[in-house]
Amino acid sequence: MSEKACIVGAGPSGAYLARLLSEEETDVTVFEVNGRLASKPCGWGIPYSIDDFMKLPEETILEKIRGYEIFLENSLIHEYKGDVLGYIVDKELLLKQLLEGANIVHRGVDPRKLIDCRLVVDARGHPVYKGRKALALQAEARANIERDRIKIFFFLDLVGYGWVFPGRDGLIHIGAGGFADYDFLRDRVLFLARQIGAEIVSLKGSPIAAGGLRLPGNGDFAVGEAIGAVMPLTGEGIRPGFLSARALYDSLRNGKPYRKSLEEYGLIFNIDIQLRIIRYLENSSPAERRELYLSAPIEVLKRVTAANLTKLEVAGLLARYPGFFRKLVLKG
Ligand SMILES: Cc1cc2nc3c(=O)[nH]c(=O)nc-3n(C[C@H](O)[C@H](O)[C@H](O)COP(=O)(O)OP(=O)(O)OC[C@H]3O[C@@H](n4cnc5c(N)ncnc54)[C@H](O)[C@@H]3O)c2cc1C
What we know:
Blueprint: E1 4-8, H1 12-23, E2 27-31, E3 45-47, E4 61-72, E5 75-89, H2 91-98, E6 103-105, E7 119-122, E8 133-142, E9 149-154, E10 160-166, E11 172-178, H3 182-195, E12 199-209, E13 221-222, H4 238-254, H5 258-264, H6 267-282, H7 286-295, H8 298-306, H9 311-320, H10 322-331
Parallel strand pairs: 1-2, 1-7, 2-6, 4-9, 7-13
Antiparallel strand pairs: 3-5, 4-5, 8-11, 8-12, 9-10, 10-11
The structure holds flavin-adenine dinucleotide.
The site of flavin-adenine dinucleotide has 39 residues, from helix 1, strand 3, strand 8, strand 11 and strand 12.
Pfam families: NAD_binding_8
InterPro entries: FAD/NAD-bd_sf, Geranylgeranyl_reductase
Protein name: NAD(P)/FAD-dependent oxidoreductase
């Protein structure tokens, strides 16, 4: 098949769609406003559920994460060491590899003005997303940490969380994100940096499309954060961006409605689960939030953050932990 495809945005969703289209010899041009790939702040973390979908090239994996510590208001409440839970990738290298078969033009464009392309896909990310947004700030910092473990910090006054992830070149990422303003989140990042004795090198922030899927109108095509393909509670957007690109690709090729394709990749269901948890947290008192964090079974935490739950698995978890889920369902 030969056609000229134009993709606007070289983030994970645009880059992966470019890969899929160029593999079948479509002439693909990707427009990217930034001179450098992956310049947006991002923890570069991908949960192990990516393995069900694609094999990450080994050279793009900076760390395999085999453990975590979860803190609530500064007290350790859960700890795990064992199987691989996810990866920290070199996002810049991963995007570069995905884009290898496409022409890259480093220029900002308006997708509506690309009239000589047979297919135009909007992959511009959160600026064009129409739903509710969260905010996430992240510092690059220097500190000694165990590089195969991540730290997650819950706070009773934040619907969101803080994190410490290993980064590239010996640096680490300290972040805080959720439904809060810049000053609040910056204070949390600085607090976490003090807690682990880190020296901050830079601090950047970005909104996250966290209100669920918003599909474009008839005849328009979009992927990734542009349509809200992000897990709204965890802020995970790389793997969902890939999934949405694959769903659009499938729908273009087999004529299946895009929504149906997104549903088949589990995006609609898993985003909905996380939206329900957000609603629960927003409607809860600090005491109820504390109770939820303390009573959350590890198995549930792991599966919700992997965000590839099926309806059958949820039914199984509901049966195993009825008390825990009753709370969520009532308010969520
Ligand atoms: C602080 C922070 C930490 C995060 N950590 C993680 C994490 O650890 N793991 C994870 O999975 N997700 C994380 N995310 C979310 C993740 O970064 C995004 O959801 C993901 O990158 C979205 O991919 P995308 O391709 O849809 O959009 P983006 O990555 O936003 O890419 C859109 C691209 O379009 C370009 N663009 C915009 N306008 C134009 C234009 N007019 N013309 C040309 N180009 C344009 C932009 O420059 C950008 O490169 C984090 C987000 C933040 C803010």
